[in-house]
Amino acid sequence: GQQVMQIPQYQHVQEGEDFTTYCNSSTTLSNIQWYKQRPGGHPVFLIQLVKSGEVKKQKRLTFQFGEAKKNSSLHITATQTTDVGTYFCAGEGSNAGKSTFGDGTTLTVKP
Amino acid sequence: DAGVTQSPTHLIKTRGQQVTLRCSPKSGHDTVSWYQQALGQGPQFIFQYYEEEERQRGNFPDRFSGHQFPNYSSELNVNALLLGDSALYLCASSLRTQGFGDTQYFGPGTRLTVL
Fold first, then answer.
1. Across the interface, which of A44, A45, A98 has its CB nearest the CB of B45?
2. How wide is the angle at C-alpha B98 spanned by C-alphas B97 and B103, nearest 5°?
3. Burial of B71 (0-12, 13-18, 19+ CB in 10 A)
4. Can the peptide bond before residue A8 be classed as cis, meaning omega within 30 degrees of 0?
């Protein structure tokens, strides 16, 4: 079945440093979604990418979808303490409505 | 505009028992998906309900079953509980447009502990 891998598992940064998490799927995706989960909370939708090579920005966050639609990345510029949490990617393949989540990258930010 | 709600918040059961978890979708949404999230892992897709029918199912045994009601709310039932069923159970609702890429909104989850 479809597998989604995320690296790194953990990332510790100093406030102001950049952060990137990578997501790789074993199969071609129809779309990929990114979520953020704060400790003790639930996943909160950030963005969805659909097109091959698509790049979307939300303030300090930049999301990319690979040309082959099998990988994606999330880059945060100049991290802040409010960025702490676990970032998940979730890919949807050929089965509409069936999302496969990666195991997330947990970001900690030292002030 | 109410978001996704789930009940109960926490639940403690013993092995072999049965449990029912409930979810009310965000106002205007018609599709409900259920996920199991073990500690330190990403949510795993259990199944999705639309128009009161199970539309997609993940790799979960038949002990996991569900239902969707005419008002779009949903229940997740787990029979013959195992210790390994201890997890956060998340409900996500969406409005079915194309089926693919429908934005999901997650509820706060139900923390199930099996002793």
1. A98
2. 65
3. exposed
4. yes
pLDDT classification of B99: cutoffs 50, 70, 90: low
Is the minimum CB–CB distance between A45 and chain B shorter than 8 Å?
A: yes
Best CA proximity match to A8, nearest among A101, A107, A109: A107
Return the amino acid letter for A92.
E
pLDDT digits (tens, 9 = 90+) for A41-53: 999 999 999 999 9
Is the preceding peptide bond at B8 cis, omega within 30 degrees of 0? yes
Segment A49-68 mean pLDDT? 97
How close B2 gets to chain A, by Cα (Å)? 15
Instruction: Tell me if chain B has a CB within 8 Å of the CB of A92.
Output: yes
Distance from the Cα of residue B21 to its chain's centroid: 7
- Distance, in Å, from the CA atom of A43 to the CA atom of B3, rounded to the nearest integer, reads 13
Rounded to an integer, what is the distance from CA A83 to the centroid of its chain? Answer: 13
Pair of tokens at residue B9: 């918040």
What per-residue confidence (pLDDT) applies to B1? 60
Cβ distance A104 to A37 under 8 Å?
yes
| Token output for B104 | 């999901």
**Backbone CA torsion sign across A64, A47, A90, B52:** negative
Q: How close A55 gets to chain B, by Cα (Å)?
A: 17
